[in-house]
Amino acid sequence: MPPATTTANGNNAPSTIPLSNALMTKLKPAKVFKNAVEPTPPPTPGSSSRANAGPRHVTSITFDDRGDQVLTASEDETFRLYSCKSGKHLKTLYSKKYGVDLPRFTHKNTTVIHASTKEDDTIRYHSLHDNKYLQYFKGHKQRVISLEMSPVDDGFMSGSMDKTVRLWDLRVPTCRGLLNLPSSPVVAYDTSGLVFAVGVNRYSRILLYDQANYDKAPFLTITLEDPTLALVSYPPRPIYMTSLAFSSNGKYLLVGCSGDAHYILDAFEGHLLAKLEGFVGLERRRLDAPPSIDPVKGNSGEEVSWTPDSKYVVGGSLDGRIAVWDVQNLPVRTGVVDLKSPPTRIQPLTTLDGHSGPARCAKFNPRLAMMVTAGTELAFWLPDQSADNEEIAKELLKKKS
Length: 401
Hints:
It contains 2 helices and 31 strands. The protein is mostly beta strands. A 5-stranded mixed sheet has the order 20-21-22-23-27, with no helix packed on it. Strands 3-31-30-29 form a 4-stranded antiparallel sheet. The chain starts with a strand and ends with a helix.
């Protein structure tokens, strides 16, 4: 395994080595930012604090296209920008008036779009360079809960609790497409930007649309039904989808959920292929909080993602651990979709310790062998190569003797 590159200040920087089982099991927190979120202020007399609140969390993270920078959004209503290569905090920007959630880098590393948490439900186009708003995208009547940039152009897409999906372009303040749905949606583009998926909660449906014909009916409707849930309780507890993500080759669709399992579907025909287990879902805010009767989004939404090569899936957990699933050998299913056919149940290849508090966000750098996780803290993970260096030293000593 090649060593990590070294920066001018002598720190190890992430390298571009290919991912493998050996590397994934050796990930360790190389840098932990304890002050990634401002602490919760003490309650003032007469104020109503959030029930079950606890400490503030980082809610979202986003990488720029080159993997040079990562940006966080937090419940303290700040953006924080970090360098992935030097491991340094670059700047903090405040959005106290509107709040901030779901930041997404555009194809420039100096601008982002983000959802609002206060004042209104407008999506904002923001310049990190001079801390100014470049555009406002108005239309949603309730909070935006899903926001994604197109991988190929200046288009982007939003899903809201107002039960709509809106399609936008950075250059135009009005939306260019609108989908009305029966429940709150989550959205995702495939890597070509030609297809997008819409997950509809309460109906357990995932709709796949042709980007050029979004005003037509979806070309594929997938029913997400897990027959193994009936073995736990009957009637089975409904699945609550909180994120969607296509694999890099477009073959698979990763469905992030607020419960104790995520799913991988065949994106061409809709077969349920795998169930990812071995973690505690983020539906609750704390481990000692009781679960609700009906499933809810909770803190879920950014805690599970593909690695760039789609060989692995990384996911956070309410107990602070990070699960890594090896998904290189998914089953092959063809023909008519059988909703009674159980998925292959996959346990983590490894479960990584080292994170304090719930791991609400877990994402792999798009270009470097580096993972970022966040909750009450922010952690940069790199492969621990000390063991490899010891083995090399032993081999050299053998040769000398």
